[in-house]
Amino acid sequence: MNQLSEKELFNQFKNGDNNAFEQLFRYYYEPLCIYASRILQDNVTAEEVVQDFFVKFWERRNSLVVESSLKNYLFRSVKNRCLNRIEHEKIKMQHAKYVIAEAETHDYNDQFLEVDLKKDIEESIASLPEKRREIFRLSREEGLKYREIAEKLNLSIKTVEAQMGLAIKTLRDKLKKYNSFLFFLFCFRVKKH
Predict the structure, then answer these.
(1) CA–CA separation, 123 vs 89, rounded Å?
(2) N or C: fewer beta carbons within 10 Å in the chain?
């Protein structure tokens, strides 16, 4: 995309032109996902970040001021969102470690059993389609990387990533009645049986 057409597209986009937005999205979406994936080391999260960015980009189109090139603005914005996501995950992990340390010194099993979270998670995992369930368990229970799962099951890495994304979305939807932190604690620290 040359500088002139990029500037014209951006001006049309700012005026609410859906077609201009679609062109910008199609042109930049994949490169931004690749860039975000390099920062986050997680393709599913990278796509979420880029999709969220484009939603906000559209919502704030009227007030956007781009002083450098649009390309620089887009990549810098996605980088900042990735860094914010990393920081947010660090805070969540610190909190999780604190709660886990507390749980090791106190017996909170009754509280967790009271809400039946673990049972509901197991039932939700069991309800996943067979291949998706197998991929989820290999990742979360056995700690295999997507590449290792793909090799073990003779699938593409993209298939494994897509199935993991769908599994997590399904579990999140099925377990939305629970506090998101409790979901995180049990779902992402599943122990081998």
Answers:
(1) 27
(2) C
Give the chain's domain count: 2
CA distances from 119 to 39, 57, 124 (A): 35, 41, 9
How many C-beta atoms surround the C-beta of residue 102 within 10 A? Answer: 10
pLDDT tens digits, 121-168:
788 888 989 998 998 888 888 888 889 999 999 999 899 989 888 888
Looking up residue 32, the CATH number of its domain turns out to be: 1.10.1740.10
Whole-angstrom Cα distance, residue 90 to residue 155?
31
Q: DSSP 3-state assignment of 175?
A: coil
Q: Which residue has the tokens 């996501």?
A: 85
| Same domain as 112, residue 62 | no
Q: How far apart are CA 101 and CA 137, in angstroms?
A: 25
